[in-house]
Amino acid sequence: MARSQHQFDLVIAANRLPVDRVVGPDGEESWRTSPGGLVTAMESVMRGREGAWVGWAGEAGEAPKPFVEDDMYLRPVPLSEDEVAHYYEGFSNDTLWPIYHDVIVPATFHRYWFTAYEAVNRRFAEAVCEVAAKGATVWVHDYQLQLVPAMVREMRPDVRIGWFDHIPFPPVELFAQLPWRRAVLEGLLGADYLGFQRVADAQNFVRACRQLLGLPTKGDTVSVSRADDSRRVRASAVPISIDYVGLEEIAKRPETQQRAQEIRESLGNPRTLLLGVDRLDYTKGIGHRIKAYGELLEEGKVSPPDEVFVQVATPSRERVAAYRELRQEIEGEVGRLNGEHSRIGAPAVHYLHHSYPRQEMAALFLAADVVLVTPLRDGMNLVAKEYVTCRYDEGGALVLSEFTGAFHELHQAFVCNPHDIEGLKQTIMRAIETPDKEKRRLMRAMRRRVADHDVQRWASRFLEALEVAPERPQRTTKE
Ligand code: GDG
Predict the structure, then answer these.
(1) Span 61-80, mean pLDDT?
(2) Ligand 1 center to residue 2 CA distance, Å?
(3) What is the distance, to the nearest Å, from the Cα of residue 149 to the centroid of all Cα atoms in its chain?
(4) Residue 424 CB less than 6 A away from ligand 1
(5) For ligand 1, mutation pick of 286, 380, 387, 407 (most atoms within 8 Å of CB)
(6) Ligand 1, atom 6: nearest CA belongs to which residue?
(7) What residue's CA is closest to ligand 1, atom 34?
(8) Among candidates 115, 117, 96, 113, which has minimal Cα distance to 105?
(9) Predicted confidence band at 479 (pLDDT cuts at 50, 70, 90)?
(10) Cα(18) to centroid of ligand 1, in Å?
C-alpha cells in the first residue's frame, strides 16, 4: 500500500500506536500489531475505508518511518526523553490522571509539563493533518490528546473531528483546580462530537463549559460562537466494550480450559478461587480489596486452602512517584497478610507483579469463582466485561464497584462501595455463598449485555454519532 499524503478517510490519533517492536533471530527489527480491543474495533470500522493511525511507538528518540501493518497506515510521532517525562509521565499521568480520578492522590502542577503537553499535542495534530484526506473523519482518543481537536480544526476546517474519553470526566469542582482548564476545554471544543463512558461524564463536561467558559448549553450540546466559527458541539455517553466474539473463542479453546484446570490444581483445588486483575494503579482499589480480605481471614470467614486469593497486579507507570509508593504500600500489606495467615504450601494471597499473555488471562478468568473489581474510580473497567465474556459456562460471580463505568451496564453484579470495608466484606461473602443456580442467572444476563454491546458496536455507534453531530459546522473555508 504505497500512499502519498492526504489519502486516508479515517484517521485515528491515540497516544500509542497499536504495535510492539519485535527482534528476529538475526537481530533484525520489525513491528507487530499488538492485539487489543481498540485495534479489533478499528479493524471492523476500517473495513472498506482507507485508514491511518497516528501515535507514539513507545520508545523515546527517533521514530520509525511510517509503515503499513494489517492494512493500516501507521504514522509514528516521535517523543524525546524529556517529552516522555513531561508530556506523558508528567502532565498526562501525574496532573490529569489524578484530577480526572477524584484526586485519589494529589495532582502535581508544573508549567513546563503543560508546555511539553501543548508541543506534543501540536505534533500529533500536524501528523493528523498530513495524512487526512479532504473531508476525512478524524477520531482522537483520550486525555493525552485533549488539545488536538482544536489544533486540527484550525489547520483543516474540512475534516470531521471526534474525541473519545476513556477515563472519567471530573465534576467541575475538581476540574476547576486545573490551571490550564480553559485551554483543555477550548481544545476539546474543536471537535464536532465528544464521546464519554457515562452520562455523568458528558454532563460534567457540559457543565464545565457553562460554568468555566460561560458558554450557552442546552441538553447535551454546547454552543461555540466566535467570529469565524459558530457551531454546536455534542457531548454524550457511548460506553466502550470488548471484542466479545474474539475473547470467547480464546476461552473456549481446549488448551485454555486445560490451563484453567491446571491453575486450580496448582492452587490446591480450592473451594473458592477469588481473583483480582488490574494495572497496579491507585484508582483500582487494590488496597481496599486486600484490607477487606485480610479482615475476612482474621475473622475466620475465609481460610486458605479452602479459599484462595490471587491478585495479578500488572506493572504500570513505574517512573511516576505515586505508583512507586503504591507498589510499596500494596506489597507491604500483602507481606503482612501472608506473614500472619499463610501456612507452608498455602499462602493467604498469591500476589503476581507480572504481565501475562491474553490466553493466560482467559484461563485465569475461567478458573476464578469470584472476580473482584473494586476501583475507587474507573472510566469503564474492561476486566469486568472480559470476565463475564470468558464464562461461557455461566459459572462465576462478579463483585463490582459502583464507581466504575461498567456498573452502569452490568446490573446483575454483586455491587460494592469499596470505601465501605464492612460492606465490601459482606458483598464478597455473598458472592461466595449465593447458590450456583442464582449466580448462573446473573452471569447469563451480564453475558447477554456484553454480547449485544461489544467493541465493534461501540465503534460504529461513536462514528454514527460523529457523522450526525448537530450540524455541519459553518466554518469560513480556508482552502
Ligand atoms: C483505561 C481506563 C477503560 C491487564 N493486565 C494484563 C492485561 N490487562 C488488560 C486487561 C484489560 C486492560 O488491560 C485494562 O483495561 P481496564 O479497563 O481494566 O483499565 P485501564 O488500563 O485503566 O484502561 C478504563 C479503558 O481505558 C478502556 O476505555 O475501561 O476505565 O482507565 O483489557 O485484560 N492483559 C494482558 N496481560 C496482563 O497482564 N494480556
Answers:
(1) 92
(2) 34
(3) 20
(4) no
(5) 380
(6) 355
(7) 358
(8) 96
(9) very low
(10) 14
CA distances (Å), origin 301, targets 304, 326, 421: 10, 27, 15
Residue with cell 469486568: 384
**Pick from 182, 143, 136: nearest CA to 159:** 136
Q: Which atom of ligand 1 is nearest to 36's Cα?
A: 32
pLDDT in tens, 304-324: 999 999 999 999 999 999 999
Which cell goes with 273?
A: 478461587
Nearest by Cα to 128 from 225, 54, 216 = 54
**Residue 454 in contact with ligand 1 by CB distance below 6 A:** no
Residue 27, domain extent: 8-237
With 0-12 / 13-18 / 19 or more C-beta atoms within 10 angstroms meaning exposed / middle / buried, residue 455 is buried
- How many structural domains are present in the chain? 2
Of the pLDDT bands very low, low, confident and very high (cuts 50, 70, 90), residue 116 is: very high
What contacts 69, CB < 8 A, 6 or more positions away? 19, 31, 32, 33
In CATH, what number is assigned to the domain containing residue 84? Answer: 3.40.50.2000
The CA angle 420-424-428, to the nearest 5 degrees, is: 180
- CA–CA dist 14, 25 (Å, integer): 31
Shared domain for 224 and 271, answered yes or no, is: no
Please give the span between the terminal C-alpha atoms of the chain, in angstroms, as a whole number.
Answer: 28
Question: Which SS3 state, helix, strand or coil, does residue 387 take?
Answer: helix
Nearest CA to ligand 1 atom 33: 383
- The rounded Å distance from CA 381 to ligand 1 centre is 7
| Same domain assignment for residues 232 and 344 | no
Do 76 and 348 meet the contact criterion of CB atoms below 8 Å apart? Answer: no
Centre of ligand 1 to C-alpha 470, Å, is: 32
Q: Is 375 in the pocket of ligand 1 (CB under 6 A)?
A: no
Residues 319, 273 share a domain: yes
Asked if the bond preceding 305 is cis, omega within 30° of 0, the reply is yes
